[in-house]
Amino acid sequence: MACLRRIWGWLYPQPPALPRTLTSTGFPLLDPNAHVEEELMPHYELANYFPVRLGDVLREQYQVLKKLGYGANATGWFCHNLTIRENRYVAIKIYLYTARENREIKFLKHLSSIRSIHPGLKLVRAMVDHFELEGSKGLLHDLQRLLGLDRLHGALLKEALIHLLTVLNYLHSEAHVIIPSKNIMIACKDPSFFEKLVEDEEQTPSPRKVVGDNIAYRSHSLPHSSSRFQGAWGIPLLSDFGETRVGDNHTGLIQPNLYREPDVVLKMDGARR
């Protein structure tokens, strides 16, 4: 049935959905003199970040609905794909202008080229599209879930450990990758969860700092402790391969400090990682 729907959609494509009109009032205003999220990064420069605003439509296809998070090299956004009817919510990762050599795109392309029947292959979050914005690079992949839990309840922890061992075995044996704990995220198996995120933004707009034409948003806090959402959590997925190198040998400092191998610290020729 799903195959027939895809064929029908290809033969008779539906027009894009209209963008939502997000509220322009009622949101909490943050102190304009305080640093917000990515502004706290050691080498923050406003000019290096693509100016994203909630409600924007990127590439005439993806409407930005919420901010998911930030890092040293990118910001993450919860978006609505206006061109499809199913699985229409995605996460877009927008890199800094200075991130010219995008290692994550290279690695995900490399990973997709590996022909494998290993069950861990499905436990790596995939990239479905990538594109450029003016002055910045964007990376798009399916939104499974960005979940920063301090702890997992017992049932979810047991299931997570089984899947994590499977995907770690796959990445070590076939892709030769070392994974830090911050790369582990929890998938979402309930599509209605994303509709609730949209409703939350309409009812409780995201806090933001407004200074002239510049807006800095506070990331959305996922309600993982609420019984309303616990049934939505699925299997763990590995993601965020921005510091991954593809190739046989590397020199210089690679890998996160905590996981850096002795031969890297000693600046020896690096084996495949």
UniProtKB/TrEMBL annotation:
UniProt key word Nucleotide-binding: yes
GO terms of molecular function: ATP binding; protein serine/threonine kinase activity
Coiled coil stretches, renumbered: none
GO biological-process terms attached to the record: regulation of mRNA processing; spliceosomal complex assembly
Gene3D superfamilies attached to this UniProt entry: Phosphorylase Kinase, domain 1 (3.30.200.20), Transferase(Phosphotransferase) domain 1 (1.10.510.10)
Top-level taxon of origin: Eukaryota
UniProt keywords, alphabetically: ATP-binding, Kinase, Nucleotide-binding, Serine/threonine-protein kinase, Transferase
Protein name: non-specific serine/threonine protein kinase
Matching InterPro entries: Kinase-like_dom_sf, Prot_kinase_dom, SRPK
Catalytic activity: L-seryl-[protein] + ATP = O-phospho-L-seryl-[protein] + ADP + H(+); L-threonyl-[protein] + ATP = O-phospho-L-threonyl-[protein] + ADP + H(+)
Enzyme class: transferase
Domain Protein kinase: 62-273
Protein EC: 2.7.11.1
GO cellular component, one term: cytoplasm
Entry keyword annotation includes Nucleotide-binding: yes
